[in-house]
């Protein structure tokens, strides 16, 4: 057996995070994570759980009792939603317009469901007429859509129209709000969303590890009346009901520190005010958008579908996206990302989320990206970018 | 929609954690958690991942390449083990001698497996003859056992004998090492354990959220040659292979801060030395055991099966266990727990794990528990307990 490894102190580089997530964590959230633990069944932890639920309802704009942090990263809350809602024999309608529709499909199939599709190209939202057609043709039990597609930077407009179609067909609606919660207008109750899941490391600027999930009574009724249990014990909401519901009985050990963290992150949302927070994201990301456009770059989605929290910036002709991404990381300790799937090599994905959605970050991004593109000989005008940014910010 | 909730600063009580977990987190681990994040695909994070894997192999006493932190609490690494190893149609042999055998059963069934049992009463270990009989009768594909039963305070002796029986029948062995890893002698490779899972919040004294898992090549070959994918996408080890293996490709966002934390917790193991750490647990928990016995209390398991990290102290006649547990929490901010299932009301579960396994904690426990029992009129002798404790510690 080997000797004890000699591993040095933790000294990661000091990055600025403007990729698709994680975003820069607020110092108050980092500080909350160094709080000593209480037990997951401690009476004082129950108060903390209640506070987290209350703050999370506020952030989701819902009165749903079933609003909890799932003990894992965003994909865990996603699988908790889909794996509990989809029973063997159910049909789930999923979109094809981005990476995360594909993940929905994989999860629904593993849950024992049949999957049907509503098509739209990567980089475009769903058309309600196509959703209507898919419902008429397939009569799905569950409809999943992505409110804010992290892979394409597209915001799905007209959510109430989509949920109406689903409800007219007696289906339940699951919304992926990973990159919208806490940063982009989202009205779970008013828009008729039955189930929404999210991640903490995007617009909430909280480290990943405990992930928001909300279900209304109609969805929870389906979960609690399943004929066979969900295929994951860890993510079984009927068992978690014992812990987060009135009993407070043991299911699994909650990730206590991550619950502390999301409590602080959600407190910051409440202090700022959810509508003010949406407005800040629009304003700061608007300056980012104006800046990159004035610099000579385009954004992939049409303005109508622009997602402030994730800006899909088109890579100029002749530029190697990977090399530019490496350049800003190496020279500026700045993280941005490239495209996935159908958009690999075609876009930069530039996040503007939570604590990263600040004017100084936009300025920094324009500097770094401009220099990286000029280093490859691209015809960009950073000065024009700065001017447009300042104008948008009223500076 | 409701107004922003007015939730105050995070001020949990200052507990001493000597229940079945979490244990007191080492200050260096808490501090590591306030480190700003890098992205989960950052080149620097890949180095951190490598270090965590190397430290985890050292702690598990294994050379297994497949040694990773699973993105969730201990039950997630448990379900990752069982859900990947058990295919529909497989038979899994599970024990009946504690709470966590029952959880294994539930997970194996959800994975599509058939479950058969090897019986032993709660509070006793498995008898190899019974394991042999169960193998001869059922020919299971997978055998799960609990090395350190958190619900009963029993350590399973003779693990190599159990794994030999399983291997003679061409089965794979999964060991629950949640309450042994890093505190109680455990030799994954030498003992022939194919798969072991654990939690970070016991003898590693790390907050829950990223949980150790190790699989040898034989187990991983089964996982990678499954006919149908595991039923959880989140916990699919063939997909996680892309992230933790040579590709380092995106699967899900890792809980970065929890990886920082477990890195620091495992560094502390390496600094202390794994064998020295086992010896400390034996010594300090030995003083706890001697102390409670001299005070007039018994331990539930026979000495041969005593589990240093979790002491199942018998509740004296006439004492209300719940009232005593509440007493020490209220008067001493000390967390201990009661029994589960067949042992509910009959035992106190007193952890002595990781950073909580210190002489001062033992002294504190004897003071608090002695007073709580005296408050209920029990005939205990705390002074004799202190004397025995000091003698064991050589003080």
From TrEMBL, chains A, B:
Stretches the record annotates as Disordered: 1-25
GO MF terms held by the record: alanine-glyoxylate transaminase activity; L-serine-pyruvate transaminase activity
Domain of life according to the entry: Archaea
Biological process (GO), any one: glycine biosynthetic process, by transamination of glyoxylate
Domain Aminotransferase class V residue range list: 38-296
Gene3D superfamilies reported in the protein's UniProt record: Aspartate Aminotransferase, domain 1 (3.90.1150.10), Type I PLP-dependent aspartate aminotransferase-like (Major domain) (3.40.640.10)
Keyword terms: Aminotransferase, Pyridoxal phosphate, Transferase
Obligatory cofactor(s): pyridoxal 5'-phosphate
Pfam families from the UniProt entry: Aminotran_5
Stated family: Belongs to the class-V pyridoxal-phosphate-dependent aminotransferase family.
Protein name: Alanine--glyoxylate aminotransferase family protein
Source species of the chain: Haloferax marisrubri
């Amino acid at each position: 057996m080997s000797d004890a490894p000699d591993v040095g102190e933790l000294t990661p580089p000091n990055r600025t995070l403007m990729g698709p997530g994680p975003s820069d964590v607020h110092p108050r959230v980092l500080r909350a994570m160094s709080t000593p633990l209480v037990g997951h069944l401690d009476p004082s932890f129950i108060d903390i759980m209640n506070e987290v639920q209350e703050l999370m309802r506020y952030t989701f704009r819902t009165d749903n009792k079933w609003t909890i942090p799932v003990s894992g990263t965003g994909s865990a809350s996603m699988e908790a939603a889909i794996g509990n809602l989809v029973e063997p024999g159910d049909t789930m309608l999923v979109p094809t317009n981005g990476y995360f529709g594909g993940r929905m499909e994989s999860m629904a199939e593993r849950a024992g469901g049949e999957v049907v599709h509503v098509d739209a190209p990567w980089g475009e939202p769903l058309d309600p007429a196509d959703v209507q057609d898919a419902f008429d043709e397939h009569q799905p039990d569950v409809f999943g859509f992505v409110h804010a597609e992290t892979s394409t930077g597209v915001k799905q407009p007209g959510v109430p129209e989509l949920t109406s179609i689903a409800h007219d067909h007696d289906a339940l609606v699951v919304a992926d709000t990973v990159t919208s919660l806490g940063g982009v207008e989202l009205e779970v109750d008013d828009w008729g969303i039955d189930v929404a899941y999210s991640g903490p490391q995007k617009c909430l600027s909280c480290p990943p590890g405990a992930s928001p999930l909300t279900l209304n009574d109609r969805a929870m009724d389906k979960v609690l009346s399943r004929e066979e249990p969900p295929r994951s014990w860890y993510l079984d909401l009927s068992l978690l009901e014992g812990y987060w519901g009135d009993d407070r009985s043991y299911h699994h050990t909650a990730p206590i520190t991550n619950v502390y963290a999301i409590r602080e992150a959600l407190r910051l949302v409440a202090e700022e005010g959810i509508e003010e927070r949406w407005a800040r994201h629009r304003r700061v990301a608007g300056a980012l958008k104006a800046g990159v456009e004035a610099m000579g770059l385009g954004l992939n989605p049409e303005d109508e579908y622009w997602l402030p929290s994730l800006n899909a910036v088109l890579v100029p002709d002749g530029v190697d996206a990977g090399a530019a991404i490496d350049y800003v990381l190496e020279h500026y300790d700045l993280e941005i990302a490239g495209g996935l799937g159908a958009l690999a090599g075609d876009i930069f994905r530039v996040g503007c989320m939570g604590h990263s959605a600040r004017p100084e970050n936009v300025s920094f991004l324009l500097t770094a990206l401009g220099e990286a593109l000029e280093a490859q000989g691209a015809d960009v005008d950073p000065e024009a970018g700065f001017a447009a940014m300042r104008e948008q910010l009223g500076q």
